[in-house]
Amino acid sequence: MNAAEDKKEAVRKARAHLAKSPLYLDTETTGVRSTSEIVEICIIDHDGSVLLDTLVKPHGLITPDAQRIHGITNTVVKDAPRWEQIWPEVEQILAGRHVGIFNADFDLRLMQQSHKASGLNWQPIGANAFCIMHLYAQFYGEWDQQRQAYRWQSLEKAGRRCSISLPNAHRARADTLLTREVLSYMAAHEL
């Protein structure tokens, strides 16, 4: 492990991702369990324009823990469209695009779980998703001896450490915009 060289590599990767004019995606969920579903999704384009920003009515209930984090209650989503109703639009937006996600493994898993809860057959999203959380961990360079990998940092910590004035609001739109700024910050860093 060479933290200085790994940081330079993270900067190069961030620049390569930005050169592909990526989309950015974030979700809020009913929880973190294997049966949890998406309750909010936002997708923005590389220029920051919002392509989709919607609440989603899950088939299950939003856990109290999740409600405390993002403030989305079962009452708030009672008239929102279901995942199966918005999926065609999500799929169309993502098709063939490069998509940056902070903690991509989680959001992609929740998309798959939302498919299952909606009775849809899961197919890959048709996009090239990359994880900005993993890239930022490499950029930040805090080694986790137990995992033998760079320690993941929360989006809130990443934003604060990058001196980005956008808050981590635990709402899909705000977090998507913050994710975009974190990638831009890394790409602008001197080699």
Describe the structure concisely.
The chain is of the alpha/beta class and 191 residues long. It is built from seven helices and seven strands; from the N terminus they run H-E-E-E-H-H-E-H-E-H-E-E-H-H.
How does this structure look, described?
With 191 residues, this protein is of the alpha/beta class. The protein has helices at residues 3-19, 64-70, 83-94, 104-118, 132-140, 155-161, 172-188; strands at residues 23-29, 38-44, 50-55, 98-101, 128-131, 143-144, 149-150. The strands form two sheets. Strands 3-2-1-4-5 form a five-stranded mixed β-sheet, sandwiched between helices. Strands 6-7 form a two-stranded antiparallel ribbon. A hairpin with a 4-residue loop joins strand 6 (143-144) and strand 7 (149-150). Helix 1 (3-19) runs antiparallel to helix 5 and helix 1 packs across helix 7.
Order of helices and strands: HEEEHHEHEHEEHH
What value does the Rg take, in angstroms? 17 Å
Strand segment count: 7
Q: How are the strands of the biggest sheet laid out side by side?
A: 3-2-1-4-5
The share of residues in extended strands comes to 15-25%
Number of helices: 7
| Span of the ends, CA to CA | 18 Å
Mean pLDDT, nearest integer?
95
Shape: globular
User: Which percent range fits the helix content?
Assistant: 40-55%
Give a short account of the largest sheet.
Answer: 5 strands, mixed
Structural class assignment: alpha/beta
Please mark out the parts with pLDDT under 50 across 5 or more consecutive residues, or reply none: none
